[in-house]
Design goal:
This protein has a five-stranded antiparallel β-sheet. It is α+β, with helices and mostly antiparallel strands and about 240 residues long.
Length: about 240
C-alpha cells in the first residue's frame, strides 16, 4: 500500500496547487461609456439637391387658395345704392334728374295736377329740400300756365318747424285728406302725423308711391319780413277723381 494514498490505490494523490487564482465571473454591469470620437472627415460628396415643389395649377400662385367654381346660381343684380342722407333727413335720392329747369310755381293760381315724382335733393341755393314735380291738368291761368306744363314745388328742410307741417299737408292731400275740413284734420293729426316720417321716406324712395296721384294746388303770394314776395302753395285732395 502506498502510504501516500490513503484509499489504497496505486496512484498518488493528485498534486494540490496552493495559491491558484480563483476564476472571476464576467462583469455584470453595463459596458463603460464609449469615449467621444472626433467627427468623421467629409466623405468628398454633397447630398443631391431636392427638386422644388411644382407651382399650383390654380390662379394666384402656389400659396393662393383655390378658386371654387360657381354653385349653380348667380347673385341677383344689386340696384345702385342711393346716397345716404345725414341723420334726421329722409333716405333716398331717386329721380334727381327730373328737375333740371327749376320750373317751380310762381304767382297766384289754382291748379289740378298729377304727381310725377317726389325726390329729396341737395340744392345749391336752399340745401336739402323735398321737391315734387307735377303736371298741370287744369289751370286758372291757361295763358301763363297752360295744361300739360310741368311745375315743381320745393320745400327746403333747413327750417323744420315750418317745413314738416308743409310736408305733412302735402302727404295728407296725396292720401285724400283735406286739412281745411275739421274731421279730416283730426284724422291727419291722429293717423297721418305719427307715421309721417316713414311715409316721406317711401315718398322719396325708388318705389315712388305717390306718382300718378292727383292733388289740387292753390298758390298765393306772401310778403316776408324782409320784404320779399314768395309764392306759397297749399295742397288739397284733387277735385277730379283719382285715376282720371
Amino acid at each position: 500500500m502506498n502510504p501516500s494514498n490513503p484509499n489504497g490505490g496505486g496512484f498518488p494523490f493528485a498534486p494540490q496547487y496552493q495559491g491558484a487564482p480563483t476564476p472571476q465571473a464576467p462583469p455584470q454591469g453595463y459596458p463603460p461609456p464609449a469615449m467621444p470620437q472626433a467627427p468623421a472627415a467629409p466623405q468628398g460628396y454633397a447630398p443631391p439637391p431636392v427638386a422644388p415643389m411644382p407651382a399650383a395649377s390654380y390662379p394666384g400662385g402656389p400659396l393662393a387658395p383655390p378658386q371654387y367654381p360657381p354653385q349653380g346660381y348667380a347673385p341677383p343684380p344689386q340696384a345702385p345704392a342711393a346716397p345716404i342722407a345725414p341723420q334726421g333727413r329722409f333716405a333716398g335720392m331717386a329721380g334727381t334728374h327730373l328737375y333740371e329747369s327749376g320750373n317751380y310755381f310762381d304767382g297766384a293760381g289754382e291748379y289740378e295736377t298729377t304727381i310725377l315724382g317726389v325726390v329729396l335733393k341737395d340744392t345749391r341755393k336752399s340745401g336739402p329740400a323735398v321737391i315734387v314735380e307735377l303736371q298741370i291738368d287744369a289751370t286758372s291761368d291757361p295763358s301763363r300756365v297752360p295744361v300739360g306744363t310741368k311745375k315743381g314745388w320745393i320745400q327746403p328742410l333747413a327750417k323744420r318747424d315750418t317745413a314738416f307741417p308743409n310736408l305733412l299737408g302735402f302727404v295728407a292731400a296725396a292720401l285724400g285728406f283735406d286739412a281745411s275740413i275739421a274731421a279730416h284734420k283730426q284724422r291727419i293729426e291722429a293717423e297721418i302725423a305719427p307715421q309721417s316720417e316713414g311715409l316721406l321716406e317711401r315718398a322719396v324712395g325708388p318705389e315712388q308711391p305717390f306718382a300718378g296721384r292727383k292733388v289740387h294746388v292753390s298758390c298765393r303770394l306772401h310778403k316776408t319780413k324782409a320784404g320779399e314776395i314768395r309764392t306759397i302753395s297749399d295742397f288739397r285732395p284733387s277735385r277730379a277723381p283719382q285715376g282720371q
